Every structure is written in C-alpha cells, then in structure tokens.
Amino acid sequence: MLLLHGCCAPCSAGVVDIFTQRGVVPALLWYNPNIHPFTEYFNRKKALEGFCTHKNLRLGIIENYGLKEFISAIYPNFDNRCEYCYGHRLESAAQYAKTHGFSGFTTSLLASPYQNHELIKKLGYATEKEHGIPFYYEDFRENFRNGQNEARGMGLYMQKYCGCIFSEEERYSQPIAFPAASKLR
Fold first, then answer.
1. 135-181 pLDDT, tens per residue?
2. DSSP state for residue 177 in the 8-state scheme
3. Which residue, among 147, 165, 116, has the nearest Cα to 4 in the 3D structure?
4. Range of the domain at 122
5. Does this model's pTM top 0.70?
6. What is the CATH number of the domain that holds 127?
7. Non-local CB neighbours of 112 within 8 Å, separated by 6+ positions
8. Alpha-carbon Rg of the chain, whole angstroms?
9. Number of domains present in the structure of the chain
10. Cα–Cα–Cα angle for 30, 32, 33, nearest 5°?
C-alpha cells in the first residue's frame, strides 16, 4: 500500500483522484509542523480528516504543531526554508511508511503549482536512498483544480497560502493591482 503525505485536503483530493482512477487507494498521513498559526494548522488538519472520512480513507496523524521547532531549524536562513520544510516532512513520511509496512510514499505537495517540484523530487529520492523505502514521484499538477473543486464541493477549508508564517507574510506583502481609473467608470 502507498502512503500519501497530505499537506491539505484540496491537494490530497487531486492526488487521491488520480490514484483511485488507477485502482490504487492510498492511505494518508498528516504531518505538517510547518503550518502556522495554530488556527491554520487546526483548520487544515480538520479538513484533511473530513476528506478522509468522506472518502473512507485511512489517515495516520503525527500531531505536532511545531512553531518553535520550525523557526529554530530555519533560523537564520529563512530564504532556504522550503528545503528544510520539504525534507523534514518527506523524512517523517518515509519513516512512518517504513514503520507501518507501506510499500512506498509520496506527497500531495506534488499537486501544487506553487511548490518547487525539482527540489521535492531531489529530496524525495534522497530520502528513499537513506531509508530504503521507495519514493513515488509524479507531477500531479494537472489535477490541481479538480482537487480544489472537489474539496470546495465537500465544503472543506480552502487555504490561501503555502502554510508557513513566511508564506502568509508574502501573501499579504504583494502589491495590490488596481484597475486603471478609466476602467472604474
């Protein structure tokens, strides 16, 4: 059986859809100590639980709201935070998969057009080599919108940023584009 690390319900829905069309029903794992603040962490976790319940999917949970751990691990190199974030979660997924008898692991991060696929792939294969459990890479971005639509149709929480507090800051620090004055009339 394949273990799917689930970063959120919308991305997980898109990946689960692809696998189930192929006759593969993955089990999911919630482990996301990078997600902040706590309300965001809680909302995403509850949405993934609701998705798994609705789809009758097995869900493992490693509970860890890890704000201090995450900040300590990336300080002072905040610009390189994604490498730590991806690597740490892939490492935890590989360990969980190996301990619980899964044949391999992957991540719903590969459904998002906002994530660095080359870095995830590199870290996934390095984790495979280190732990001796296969990492399954596939570009699931083609089904990103379908996953969002499915989660929205189920009334699940839809996040607005990657998850870490720095990505939330980036979301709000982008300049707002206003239409030209002539278009407002």
1. 999 999 999 999 999 999 999 999 888 888 788 777 777 765 555 54
2. P
3. 147
4. 2-184
5. yes
6. 3.40.50.620
7. 7, 11, 141, 144
8. 17
9. 1
10. 135
